[in-house]
Amino acid sequence: MSELLNSSDERVDALYNMFAGFIEKKDGRELWDEYKHKLDALTPVDVLLMGDKLLEAGYSVEQITDHVEKIFNVIIPTLKEYDWNEPEEGSALYYLMEENAALSECMNEMKDSIRAISKLEPNEPEYASVLNEMKEEFKKLAEFEPHYVKTENVLFPYLEKKWEFSKPLTVLWAVNDEIRNQIKKVNKMLSESKEIEIEHHQEIGTIFMLMMRMTLKENLIIFPAAAATLSEEDSKEMLPQMADIGFCLIDPPKIDKMINEIPELSNEIVSMGGTGALTAEQIVTMMNHLPVDITFVDENDEVRYFSNPKERFFTRSPAIIGRKVQNCHPPDSVDTVLKIVEGFKNGKKDTASFWIRMMGKVIMINYYALRDAKGTYKGTIEVSQDITDIQKLEGEQRLLDWED
Known about the structure:
Layout lengths: L8 H15 L4 H8 L8 H13 L4 H20 L11 H27 L8 H13 L5 H18 L6 H23 L6 H30 L4 H14 L23 E3 L5 E3 H10 L3 E6 L4 E4 L24 H15 L5 E8 L2 E11 L5 E10 L1 H4 L13
Helix pairs in contact: 1-2, 1-3, 1-4, 3-9, 4-8, 4-9, 5-6, 5-9, 7-8, 7-10, 8-9
């Protein structure tokens, strides 16, 4: 695969040694002088293979994210020279790149407000109006969330199935989470502020750097490599899944969303182990009408099923079917996932529970080990439920409360 994508062992090794040197706090100028002559024809896949090699060598996602901007600074000019066939309108990658272009334009416009407020004193009449305008503009950054969700839950699963070097995608997910946290931090900071101080400018600078650099990482590394490996059929499958999640900062393309109605299923009766017998349609309908999100991961840690309730708490797309469960979670929660699965597999644990607050709701997340009659581990089921109203229950209700 890598040979088809213009990679070079010599370039990968040089880039790896330079990045590892940065992590080990060696002199950056000396590292660049030592390896720059080997990086003239650097390709996006070289960068991905280098990231894969770092992770294989034992460097953590956190170590890589802490130093990725340093290495990215020195390779941007070369990557910009890389010649590739950019996606045409109507393809999944095209709309992701359009969103990146819209974000760049949006953030360039936001710079006008930042420059304007920097020239004003807090006691000047127009200061408050410029600050309020700036607050509204920064709220729009949260609207870019669907872009990151689409890459993590649709694009990445397709690439994981095709790339032998997909581990660096976890690094991008970690940076996405850093962006999410920084957006929340900046918006909270601005909402509580009546004037912009030096520390505020520093936080604003951080969010600009993170978001604009992510557009470059995608446009210069991920999308060119993806374009060389994804087929037209892949793109056709991805588009309705992306449409279900939604587009941001661009006019949404006319794409048929996934059909939520149950497709035609077999009428063959399935024995339910002595407690009844149902058709496939009855089973699917029943699962989708339960007021919970259900995801099943088999004994090989691969996602095999998720329900499709009317209200979903966490993004699920058909692209994750067959995906390793470890790849379905952000890097900072992978260790917890591995601990749960290991505890279930070795028989020491059977359940794990969490509850979180999101969108004004309290969500209960339960994990259950599945075992056959002999006790052999057969997988894990995740069940998420909105318990906001359940928490408020008191006393009893024995009468039907329907209104005529």
